[in-house]
Specification:
The protein is mostly helical and 455 residues long. The protein has helices at 9-12, 15-20, 23-43, 49-58, 66-76, 81-91, 104-140, 160-185, 204-215, 229-255, 283-304, 314-343, 349-356, 365-376, 378-395, 399-405, 407-410, 415-421, 431-454, and strands at residues 145-150, 153-159, 263-264, 346-347. Helix content is 65%, strand content 4%.
């Protein structure tokens, strides 16, 4: 129901996907399949050419009485027969050749693939755009230092570019998964009553090929009426990508916390709170996290839709009518909305620098331990630094001064050497190098992706 709410629908869909999965477009896709089927049958001599021409001329949504069709669907408890009956009437004597040898599932499944074909273009486009935004964000902040955090605690220094690069590499893998899943799922379905194409004689395989070629869909070695694994796989891939998007959105929201304050969603007219004027809430990021949770919840239902009995059944099949459009809409929404967040993201470098110094040098405990360990051994050095860090944390004493004044350390490392160790920029590891590698890799892969799509 929320997909129809004008207030909330942009959280879980986009204008493009709402159009693709509208009732009107759904019915037009069914009509497109009937037209392609008739045209191919005429080419192969299965029905008269005049019949195919008449069917194609009348297979237009605006020629149907849509309200009548809806009423008849409710009475018949069948989604397609009322449409076929109306189209039959419109075609006059040529209507006898409509839907020749086909079954409802052939039309509905292939129509669904036409919708999914358009949706998959949006899905890949939005994912590519998201990766592009992240790539440029990583490049801009390749050397911007911040705290790396583990288990919710400050751990060691990294760069913001490094953090973003981890997201990029994950999304690049997802792009490959999505492209492969799209190739597998975007295939037509034409099998007749039980998938054997018995009504078409020796023209059956050629008919399949021609129908799907006209519709821009792939061909499978055998009809897939009861095999729903590719549809389920596509939904699962969307949910998996949503897991990464949810992680990114949650990280933005967490880093925007007042006590951290390292990034912030652009406000652009937003109101943080109806009662607290000072609030600057990460509303979009949090809504993305919520929508991704909905997306994940669609996977179990999609798996249930695989459990067709015998050669097919409507019990499992009906689940797809509900879940696939919802999953496609939600995915398009979350990729679009998180991209907009990241395009306008304010990165507060001074706050990042302040947080680096919050622990008074303890962020460099590993660097300190390894330097001292060269003289007294790693284990003893760990114990010594741990004890001094505990004193600093429990008493409020300055950690750096405790280190400077510790005799065991002073005999091996001078104050100048220790001060150098305490400099976060000297312990970034391969943060910058990793970022540069991923940024270049992303740019190369995106360029290749663009070239392959245009060829």
């Amino acid at each position: 129901m929320i997909f129809g709410y004008q207030i909330f629908r942009d959280i879980v869909s986009t204008a493009e996907t709402r159009l693709i999965f509208s009732e009107e477009n759904l019915v037009q896709c069914w009509l497109d399949v009937e037209a392609a089927l008739a045209t191919a049958q005429a080419e192969l001599g299965l029905i008269p050419a005049e019949a195919a021409q008449t069917i194609c001329a009348n297979a237009q949504l605006e020629k149907l009485d849509f309200l009548r069709m809806l009423k008849e669907i409710k009475i018949a408890s069948h989604p397609l027969v009322p449409l076929v009956n109306q189209l039959d009437e419109l075609c006059g004597e040529h209507g006898h050749y409509l839907h020749w040898g086909a079954t409802t599932q052939d039309i509905l499944d292939t129509g669904a693939m036409l919708q999914l074909k358009d949706a998959s273009i949006i899905h890949q486009r939005e994912l590519v755009c998201l990766i592009k935004v992240l790539t440029e964000l990583a490049a801009r902040h390749r050397t911007t230092m911040m705290c790396g955090r583990t288990l919710g605690q400050q751990a060691m220094p990294i760069t913001f570019g490094f953090k973003v690069s981890v997201w990029i590499e994950e999304l690049l893998r997802h792009l490959d998964r999505l492209e492969q899943a799209s190739k597998n799922v975007l295939v037509g379905q034409l099998g007749g009553a039980v998938g054997t194409l018995a009504g078409y004689g020796d023209k059956a395989l050629l008919l399949q090929e021609r129908v799907f070629e006209k519709l821009g869909l792939g061909l499978t070695p055998i009809p897939w009426q009861a095999s729903r694994d590719n549809v389920t796989h596509y939904v699962a891939i969307l949910a998996i990508i949503g897991g990464t998007i949810s992680k990114i959105a949650r990280e933005v929201a967490t880093l925007q916390r007042t006590e951290i304050g390292e990034v912030e969603e652009a406000m652009d007219g937003k109101v943080g709170s109806s009662t607290m004027p000072h609030k600057r809430n990460p509303m979009t990021s949090m809504q993305v996290v919520a929508a991704c949770a909905l997306l994940r919840d669609m996977v179990p239902t999609s798996i249930d839709a695989m459990r067709h009995q015998h050669e097919r059944d409507s019990e499992s099949w009906t689940l797809e009518w509900l879940r696939v459009p919802e999953a496609c809409c939600v995915f398009a929404a979350v990729t679009n909305r998180i991209r907009l967040v990241l395009e306008g993201l304010q990165v507060k470098e001074q706050c990042m620098q302040n947080n680096l110094n919050m622990l008074g040098g303890m962020l460099q405990s590993e660097a300190l331990m390894l330097s001292i360990g060269q003289h007294i051994g790693r284990q003893e050095a760990h114990h010594l630094v741990f004890e001094l860090a505990t004193v600093a944390q429990t008493t409020g004493q300055d950690f750096r001064e405790l280190i400077f004044d510790e005799p065991t350390i002073a005999i091996h490392l001078s104050r100048a050497e220790l001060s150098e160790i305490f400099e976060p920029s000297r312990y970034l590891g391969m943060s910058v190098e990793f970022t540069d590698t991923i940024v270049q890799r992303s740019r190369d892969l995106l360029q290749h992706h663009q070239l392959s799509k245009s060829s």
